[in-house]
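Hey, quick one: can you model this chain's 3D structure?
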Amino acid sequence: MTTFHTVMSNGLVPTLNVSIDFTNAPTNATRVWTDVTTDVRSLNYTLSGRNDVLATTSTGSLSMTLSNKSGNYDPSNTNGAYTVAHGYLGVRQFLYIQVQGQWSGTAYNRWTGCIESWDVSWPSAGKDNIVSVTASDVLQILNNFDLGGNDLPEESTGARVATVCALIPALPCTNTPGRSYCVDSGTLTPGMSAMSHLQQVESTENGRLFADGGGTINFQDRYWRVFNSTTVQGTIGDAAGEIRYTPTADLASNTSNLWNHAVINPTPSPGESGLGTAIADNTASQTAYFPRTIQKTYLTDNLYDCIDAAQWLVQIYGTPKPKLPAIQLLPSQNTSLWPAVLGLNNSDLVTFKRRPSYGGTISSNMYIEQVAETIIPGTDWQTTVQMLPVLDYPGVSLWILGTAALGSTTALAY
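Sure thing. Here's the predicted structure for all 414 residues.
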């Protein structure tokens, strides 16, 4: 059970807990947490995610400043509290770290990963002693793992994620089966990282790969959201009862994701050739905006799957759509909404509302794609979310007979 230490909380922000496992190597699935919260001066982190539906997932990161007046966080201090002499592993790289927030007695996992650096410094002309800590989430473990020499069988995208994660000791993973299939890889050459390979799997599926706040790798196929994320978890808006946000949220409409000519190359399995190339065009969009080409290579030898994906791409992205930047939430203005904010995870469904001065209400359902937080314990807790429209996701904009117009408000999924 985690003990939460209140650091002179102003009552407007959650209670913070930061814990480090000084006891177990990261390849050991057991975690023994040591609470270091009272030494935390500042903390900021970004969970793994993406800022564009066609982008691959980026690794999450953390930066933290610890008070080191005790000397306990100096890796060179042989008399520190967490040294081998005291039964610990010592202050070293690749120790697990976990961040949690608590509100009204409920704890929320916010970030989990492995420490990469401890930088000791003595500011204020040597009168102070701090340690700057950096860490990456568990996707970085994939990034450092070489798949060279492995021959991965033909299997669904979800099974491929599970196969790769199983090669790495004590790496928790949860996945859906997947709608597409990956080819037999043949014997992979050295230098192919597990992260790069799974990013290709993510792209092939048009799904989602990310590490959650508890340190588990999640893989969601392209239909996961349509079946599992259908309840709105909160309304982000500018009216009473809504989660307020900074007033600088801009709705940008540009050509960054305007594609009307798609070229997708399948990947042959060992000994296979002559698969062809999937090509799809949105001629109406090309007339309006000139041809704009998107090209991809999928880890499947199923040309028909590639054709379906190409047709979906040009249908969805043949017309420019407004996009929100990352926006900062302001739950401190209505603290009863903190549970909704602390509960937000990648793929959660929210509603965004904006009421312009010229009248009317802009309202759009969005998926959470990435969460970042900056924390001064007990004083300030800033949450920033990256959201993307529901209509930009495969499998969600399904054509329902009698309720929508195909090609106008919805598009066929694949």
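One thing worth noting: The chain has seven helices and 20 strands.
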